[in-house]
Every structure is written in C-alpha cells, then in structure tokens.
Specification:
With 134 residues, the chain is of the alpha+beta class. Helix content is 18%, strand content 40%. Strand 1 and strand 2 form a beta hairpin.
Length: 134
C-alpha cells in the first residue's frame, strides 16, 4: 500500500518513463480548449519540458487527446503553450503533453526549467529527453 506522501507517480519505475524531469510548482493557470473556444481556470501543480499537470477549479468536461493551450506565469514570465490532454485522472487533474512548441517557446521553457532546478538544488535539466545524445 502506498503512503500518502508517495504516489505511483513518485515511484522510480514511473520516473524512468518520463522524458524530462518534472518539478512541483504552484501558480494559477488557464486551460483553453481550442476546438470549442472554452476556457477553464485552475492551478499548475507540476511542470517539465514535456508537459504539466493542472488541477482545474471545476470538473474537466472531456477526456484525453483534446487540443488545448495552457497559460500560466512563473518567475514573472508569461507562457501560453500548445498541447493535448494526455490524461484526465479524476476529472479535475489534467495531464498535458506540450506539442508543436516554437524554438523560442521551447528555449524560454528550458531556461525556466533550469532556474527551477537550480533553486530546488536538483540536477539542471537538459532540453533533450533522457537518453538522447546532447
């Protein structure tokens, strides 16, 4: 049985499957559902170069593979990143996979991730997936 402080996402096996290190954050976020023109507010809970987790204020109305844009501001830098809902855990926690990032947005996000890693005392992440040549 898992303890309250350790979830399946914290297990070493699950972390190895991730392409990029994921860092805990806490800031307001807006999810824009591109195809229907709707928006939802919530909290950005974690972030990586490959995606994020957002807890919506209201029940998320659809499932996975919905085109979205995630908007948030961290360390004074505003972001609006395109992606797709990767999973909807309990209708409020929505996993997002970033897609089609421009070079400029990818570099801004990589710079932010390096700053977060340095502040947290973690290894500084590369902008390449683990196992990829640098």
């Amino acid at each position: 049985m898992e303890s309250a402080s350790q979830s399946r996402n914290d297990s070493p096996q699950y972390r190895r499957r991730r392409a990029y290190p994921r860092y805990t954050v806490d800031t307001t976020a807006i999810l824009y559902m591109v195809d229907v023109g709707a928006r939802m507010t919530g909290r950005l809970l974690n972030l990586s170069l490959g995606g994020c987790l957002i807890r919506t204020d209201d029940r998320f109305p659809t499932g996975a593979f919905r085109r979205i844009e995630a908007e948030f501001c961290l360390q004074g830098i505003p972001f609006r990143l395109p992606g797709v809902t990767q999973n909807v855990r309990d209708r409020r926690n929505v996993g997002i996979r970033f897609l089609d990032l421009s070079d400029r947005k990818r570099e801004q996000l990589a710079r932010l991730m390096r700053e977060i890693a340095e502040e947290s005392g973690s290894d500084v992440p590369s902008d390449r997936p683990e196992g990829m040549p640098g």
